[in-house]
TrEMBL record:
Organism (species): Achromobacter arsenitoxydans SY8
Key word Signal present: yes
Highest taxon of the lineage: Bacteria
Protein's UniProt name: Extra-cytoplasmic solute receptor family protein 55
SUPFAM superfamilies: Periplasmic binding protein-like II
Record-linked InterPro entries: BUG, Bug_dom1
Amino acid sequence: MTATFRAALLALPLAFAAHAGAAHAAYPDQAIKIVVPFTPGGATDAVARLLANKLSGKLGQPVIVENRPGASTVIGADTVARAQPDGYTLMLSGSTTYTVLPALKPSLPYDPLRSYEHIGIVAMAPVVLLAQTGLAATTVQEAAALARQQSNKGGLMYGTFGPGSAPHLAGEMFAEAAGAKMMPVPYKGSAQLITAMIGGEVALGVDTVSSAAPQARAGKVRALAVTGERRMPQLPDVPTFAEAGMADVSFVGWYGLVAPARTPATVVETLNRAVSDIMQDPQVRKSVADLALDPVYLPAPAFQAQIKQELRTFGDVAKRADITLE
C-alpha cells in the first residue's frame, strides 16, 4: 500500500464527517424570505417587515420580505405552498388567504390546512361598522332597526371591498343579526368607500379599524361597533358588537406565518420559539398596536383550529347570502 493511498483512506472518514455536518447544519445558515401576497405599504406588509427585522436578530441571518401580489393573494400563497420545504421560504398573510377564499372559492391551487406548516397567528384585525354622519342612527341597534325598516324597499345599502371581502362577510353577519335584508355595494378600498359615504352614496360601510379610525375621529363618518373581544384603543368609545347584543357579528381578520408543508419539525420548532419570543416583546406589541391591530401569539394548534372554525362559519354565511367567487 503506497503512502499516497494510505493517506487517502485515512482522509475518507474526515470527508464523510464534513459532509454529514454540512447536511445537518444548524438552521438557519442562509437568508430567509417571507413572502407577502399583497403590495407593499399595507398592514400585512408592515407586520411582515416588523417580524423580518426581529427574526433576523433572533436567528442571526438576514430575513427579507418579498411582495408577490395577485389573484386575491392566490399567486403568493401558491408560490409558498410549492416552495422547497426547508424553512427558507415563509409566508405572512391574512385570513383572506387562509379562510375567506377557501370558504368561498370552489377550487384553489393550495389547501389552507394541508399545504402549510402553521407557525403562528401574530395579530388580530377587527373591522368596524360605519354610518354616514347624517344617518338617523347613532348606535348599532338604531342602525339595525333602520335596516329592518328598509328591507322591503330593496335593502339598506352598505359599502364593502367587493364580493367575498372581509367587509362583505362582516356586513352579511350584521344583516343576519339585525334580521334585515341589505344591499352590498363594492368599492376598491377604504379611501373610495369613505368618500362614497361622505357623498351619501351608501348609508353604512364596513372597514378596517386602522383605515377608518382617523376618519371617524375627524367626524367624517360615525363608528358604530367593532368586531372582536374588546374595544380598540383607536376607538375607545365605540362598543364591540358583543357589547351591543350582536355577538354573532364576529368577523375578525388576522395575520399568520406559515412554512411549506413537510418543512422539518426541528425547523418549525425553531421558528415557533423565535416568533413566540418576538410577540412577547413590549416594543413589538406596541408597534403592532400602533397599526390598529391586536398583537397575539397563537401557536399551530390554535392556528389550525381558527382555520377550521372560520371555514365552517364563512361557508355557512356565504351559502345563506349566496356569495360565491369564481
